[in-house]
Amino acid sequence: MNSVTIPFLDLKAAYVELKGEIDAAVARVLDSGWYILGTEVEAFEQEFAGYCAAGHCVGLANGLDALHLGLRALDIGAGDEVIVPSNTYIASWLAISQCGATPVPVEPDPQTYNIDPARIEAAITHRTRAIMPVHLYGQPADLDAIVAIARRHGLRVIEDAAQAHGARYRGQRIGAHGDLVAWSFYPGKNLGAFGDAGAVTTNDAALAARVRVLRNYGSRVKYINDEAGWNSRLDPLQAAALRVKLMHLDDWNARRRTLANAYAQQLAGLDLQLPQVPDWAEPAWHLYVVQATDRESLQKRLAEHGIGSLIHYPIPPHRQQAYAAAGIAAGTLPIAEAMADRVLSLPLGPHLPTAAIAQIAAALRS
Ligand SMILES: *Cc1c(COP(=O)(O)O)cnc(C)c1O
């Protein structure tokens, strides 16, 4: 029984549902004869800023660049420290390292999977410049608590919102709580392009202007370079496709929420830790992540029933070879390490039929 009957995520189904609109949007860009930045990118930037209730959006090449150029715009560099969750995707850490700064891990609340504000102040030193909360798996971090700590210590807040398009914190969409918010539109995200894409949103006009310069070779005026920048421009083909998909984001997030509610009902009573949602959080349900002590056998059982599952993430950043030089010993960050051993992401996406949840629950029970 090897043929997959319930895929972890069906990316093509999203294209099929919107094929007419997407094809027309892509053809519009090809017919325009304009293939770098331009009106299509500007239109997406305005529409996404509006969606997030943020003053500004700057379209970029990917989510890692959004974090990296966001940190650069905040003037974070060598000798600086940035507080980051111990249990995030490695991109959050890499963006900090790319600036020459040091990622300083803080452990999550094991119930919500997000950075635990009660642990942040102990990690602040005279070198700390910013806090980078990650809205992991689509659930917003406790932004009021984090912003209050940052204000008290004169720190910046740059949010990693790569997994949380459309999530709400205390009823308000995320996208402008911190100084800068970084987004990825990697195909598998809630708002996904047909290739790499990313953006930052902010209410700070000067920060937005700085990222705009950094993404385009440090240039405001063609062939006049004010600083040593990068090439990280949002592709107009991706912008055109994202404009179509943005119109369906709330609808698709609602479908994800229905599936998450079905999981909560159908998995109750199993020996699994289900995601806990604080009453102030409306997650975007990017992933449905359970924790289990016998994860390997559960994953095997799902596979035997043709059900896809993934692990986000099997190795925390501090235990990756990439961070060997940081010398953070095993056992130093026990919550992140326990999560890496226990987490399991179940199938979830706007095109997964609700009936599949009962099938998945039955397989887990078998
Ligand atoms: C996807 C992701 C990123 C990086 O986005 P890319 O577009 O792949 O560069 C950063 N942080 C988190 C939490 C992510 O899930």
TrEMBL record:
Q: Which UniProt keywords apply?
A: Pyridoxal phosphate
Claim: Iron is one of the keywords in the record: no
Please give the Pfam families that the UniProt record associates with this protein: DegT_DnrJ_EryC1 (PF01041)
- Gene Ontology MF annotations: pyridoxal phosphate binding; transaminase activity
Record keyword Nucleotide-binding present: no
Top-level lineage group: Bacteria
Q: Which residues form the active site?
A: 189
Annotated positions of the N6-(pyridoxal phosphate)lysine modification:
189
InterPro entries (UniProt xref): DegT/StrS_aminotransferase, PyrdxlP-dep_Trfase, PyrdxlP-dep_Trfase_major, PyrdxlP-dep_Trfase_small
Q: Name one GO biological process term.
A: polysaccharide biosynthetic process
Similarity comment: family membership: Belongs to the DegT/DnrJ/EryC1 family.
Q: Which protein, by its recorded name, is this? A: dTDP-4-amino-4,6-dideoxygalactose transaminase
Instruction: Look up and give the organism this protein is from.
Output: Tahibacter aquaticus
